[in-house]
Fold:
Amino acid sequence: MKSTMQDAPLLIRDIVLRGEQIYGTKQVFTLTPQGVDVASFSQVAANARRLANAFARLGVSADTRVATLMWNTQAHMEVYLATPTMGAILHTLNVRLFPEQLSFIINDAEDYVIVVEETLIPILARVRSLIPSVRHIIVKGHDSEGLLGDVLNYDELLAVETDHFDWPDLDERQAAILCYTSGTTGDPKGVLYSHRSTWLHSMASTVTNSVGLSESDRVLAVVPMFHVNAWGLVYTAFMAGTDLIMPNMLFKGEYLLSMIEQLRPTIALGVPTIWNDLLRAASEKTTSDFSSLRGILAGGAAVPRSMIEAFKERHGVDVIQGWGMTETSPLAAVAIPPGASSPEEEITYRAKTGRIIAGIEVRLKDVDGQALPWDGVSVGEFELRGPWVTGSYYHGQGSESFRDGWLRTGDIGTLDAQGFMVITDRTKDVIKSGGEWISSVDLENKLMGHPAVFEAAVVAVPDDRWDERPLACVVFRSDQTATVEELATFLADHVVKWWIPERWAFVESIPKTSVGKFDKKVLRASYAAGALEITQRS
Ligand code: AMP
Structure:
């Protein structure tokens, strides 16, 4: 029997309309080198309608790809709202990509318009002659050196348009947003979110068992808007009535600290390397005020327990760990402790990767594809299914990542009976030593708990006897150091003896990917090329 319920489509349009109607006075703060620009949701939505009129005049219609090369700003938000709502497809370009990757992605997506910020013009200029599908470039700011040839000016375009635009009725399954994976193995692959998936993902970010964003929140959005849609934040903010603080390109610890003290966010979102830098900046000041924060959402890479402890002990701030990937929109798991009986147990829950959220199904598979139990011990690959998980890649690439309707995440770890997952590695990063797995993530997290260690990355290197062994690459805090023996002794209290690396490299910094994760392929290549100075543990 069919239900009697209506079947209303889930559209980004309705998030925007409702957000403007009932949360019109909510605010967006954009940091600029001169100060802070403030706009209301009503102003942002009105600008989005002006922009939609301008886009329509330029020939943007259903399915046209509109790309952005922008930092976290109000203008970027306006493009986020206008593009999918008028039926076109928003494509955010990562400003940190190499020119070959950037032109590859623009051509793969067949972008028609690119909106670029003044400060990023040199990046686009390098590939301008290689991207024939791009008909219009709109500059927020000025191309004073004329690097891009014929361009349109963002503010001038909006100034001549009305703020009336009839957002069309759309199919909820229509593509709304195109994001590319970071392509650490092979070329980046496109993932197309729909209106429906974006709507449901936004809703999932508002429930208390996940991030629980609400009208009482003010979010510091440190996760870049070119990385998985800033974890869906713009749409969630409009759905939940959440103020947004946009740091523009000012992501350093010192800036973040002053934003936290002055604009008093309740929650801040970003990758662990950013939060490590914030801790450093705070430790260099005599006082710092974190009292407005109810939490720091950290994800995109493993969050070391020592970082969770440091935020709690030094600043009274809870770290909320989240897990997801471009393929999952990205939110899929959030580590909210289920009523811990002691502060120690609470930290233990927070140090898990995440608890799978409602709407996402998970299963754990061994190398032969056999299901593994949810016992917190068996190690396998996570596979996911759900309405905001992709079922394929754009242009049908990467079909090996899907198995009978499930996404193979390439993340390896354990799952317990309560649905908490702990990631121990990526499939491509596991260390297979004498037939047994060593978790690089575990070793890194433990090493980063040593007081002298600022960052540590562990990679597999070839070994005659054991096939592979871990190589630990360590960055010390300024003015601090430790010997290999001291670090090995420290590790011996935390991991089994045979995991402890023999090979160590003390480096100035760990190479990072375009989205701020440890770039382990660069470390492996440096080792193979003999470019790392190795200290051998006796
Ligand atoms: P991306 O698609 O660039 O967002 O990368 C997704 C990948 O980041 C995941 O497949 C994981 O390998 C990694 N990742 C995200 N969150 C976490 C986390 N909390 N702990 C460990 N790895 C994570």
